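Narrative of activities, Objective 1.

The group set out to show that a structural description can be obtained from nothing but a protein's sequence at a throughput compatible with the screening campaign. Below is one input-output pair from the validation batch, recorded exactly as produced.
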Amino acid sequence: MQHDYDVYEENCPTRQVLARVADKWALLILDRLDGEPVRFNHLRRDIKGVSQKVLSQTLKRLERDGMVSRTAFATVPVTVEYALTPLGRTLTETVAAMAHWAEKHMDAVLVAQQAYDAQPR
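Output recorded for this entry:
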């Protein structure tokens, strides 16, 4: 079954996926998972400022969309690891570019913000 999707259409389901991957927490999670599987608490420690609830919700959404896999190990307590799926790996370069673009260009953004804020309204 072939579908034609158009991200500019209001009710296109691609908008939900774009909203998910454009979310700052999803971007940081996807970027952090590039490489090897990572445990939940390790993700929480690495991604400063994310709450346990938001991390859990975001991982579940990414798992539902097929971008992240969850593996539970029968330990006491249970150990859970998250990894990128093959679909999630297709976003690796894009996610890294977005996340690290902000680091590289933050000074220019701050200058632009100051100039904008200094304009009379």
